[in-house]
């Protein structure tokens, strides 16, 4: 036997790996995670730990039980995608969520939405979004309760829980329902308002997004289009009142959705034109549904648009370098 | 401040070129090995027919195989010696062909071709055929055929991009033999009635670009990017013309030739020397002393590695050609041809042994593709057996540069999928 290896070209590969990208995404989510813990206390940390652990466990169980793999295979193949999913689910939970809610969300996301469809890269919708929507629709009030005032505002200690606030009285909720802008833009930007653990701080999420852009994992144009279109549509729907612009983009789940969930590689188009249309459509749908329903709809908008992605790549195919139109060619030859 | 305007094409990939390993090593002539195996199939046309038999004495520069058919090419002996046998042997690509085995004897004897009229386009063209010159960048297309385009052309581009990592033989040729390469390029231009010759030089060889300019050659400096040396990308960067899909450079009035080919043309016309040796780079961190060599045609890779101090412990993957488009080999007894521009021995650190994992649809392949295709879908549909859809996403426009597979974080074997697709479509016809 020769000591040399054989293999097809190219013989050199870029150092970037799927695992590396997913670890980068985890790193990019860290500012928002930390801000969430600071504002919502240890409960928030526990919720996120539960959801990450159950997401990884779900993948492990699926591979062992249904794919007959050994634990060793699982470790070798582990690419951190389920960790990202679990983390996103945790960040989308209210700080006082009952322990079983993130567990169910993670198991649904990994087992049903991701693994049943073929695992990494084969899911047709974003698992984290599907998981979140699944529990919010299934458990209704139980899942939607548990929003608290940031503990920093209450002045209570790190281990205490803040005052529970009524569902729907998050800044976005009161803004959409009653036109009540009680939170300042600065508050919304920094994130010390009631909301899901990881979605309140626009500043932390933008910082994470910038990290991804610098690492080359994210094209800044796409979240930017989504966010700006949503803001402008909100302005237009409210009689061109520009006071709506900043609160619309800083509140609710838009930042988290636009930067980390809508841009998920698997469930977004692959062409420039496709992406432009996709993210504009997302922005329009988000703003219109928010306006009409008076509630947060970012995850529903993304879920809806996820389903259209195969169509984008089917009908928008870039012209190859040196493409000549058939008619033009025929004319030239004639 | 950029000294030159750097031109390029859309997309492509950037990587460290590793040329520093052999960049500063001057060209050196490797002594003739004890045995050479000269293939009769060193070009893309029909294999040449041997005109020598076992037991015949041959001298350096003697014709040993006659051209066959319209895309044929002549083959000359690279050493003095005795023909031992004609054997079937695998080449670097794995294709088996007849090889003429010659045992070398010490001799200074050398045969040259007859003098010709250097000012006559027809006789220059004939000489290029006589000398057995083929495209030395890797394709092996007979140069005389390429110089007789069926459409009007106005520009000859000399491809000095050398965009593959590690390879430095064209760089050394340009640096050390600039006059000869320019003269050769002018002969190539003369053969097809052109007077417009442009050198396309990548920006990592600015010293070459300046040298060529000093000597009065027209130079376009190209951005350092892969695959800048691919014909269509090169033409677009140099004069902004897009070769139509499925077309040839002559469709936009251009002929592209390699630096080594130009040098071979110089030797054939000026020195009456047929093509039986060429410059090549032996590099990679698995080789003890990387070198730029002038090697006799048919020298075995083992002899070349031995001449370069042998392979070290870490050598893991051996490659004939560049690391992006070359062929891996494990049998070092294969021998060089007219198109062998480099032999590399890569270490574990340099090459990648990662196994493919599922595609995550990140789109890096499409952003890298110089042909603006969608490699992720070509891969997907080919593996699913749906070749027609793979064609819709551009499988037939792919020239297998490997930019997609290079940039793929899931390490998918996209180039192999493309080849499979093309093969299946061919079989269907």
Structure commentary:
The complex is a heterodimer of chains A (334) and B (429). Helix content of chain A is 62%, strand content 0%. Chain A is mainly alpha-helical and 334 residues long. In chain A, α1 (18-40) runs parallel beside α4, α1 packs antiparallel against α11 (202-214) and α4 (81-91) crosses α5 (100-115). The longest helix of chain A has 24 residues, at 42-65. Chain B is of the alpha/beta class. Chain B has three domains: 27-112 and 274-347, Ubiquitin-like (UB roll); 114-270, Rossmann fold (3-Layer(aba) Sandwich), CATH 3.40.50.11540; 364-428, no CATH class. Chain B has 13 helices and 17 strands. Chain B has helices at residues 121-130, 143-146, 169-176, 178-191, 206-214, 231-239, 259-270, 301-307, 364-368, 375-383, 387-392, 403-407, 414-428, and strands at residues 27-29, 35-39, 49-50, 57-58, 63-66, 75-76, 81-90, 96-104, 155-160, 197-202, 218-222, 254-258, 277-283, 291-296, 315-320, 327-329, 342-347. The termini of chain B are far apart. The model of chain B has no long low-confidence stretch (mean pLDDT 91). Classes of the chains: A mainly alpha (334), B alpha/beta (429). Chains A and B meet through α1 of A and α6, β15, β16 and α12 of B.
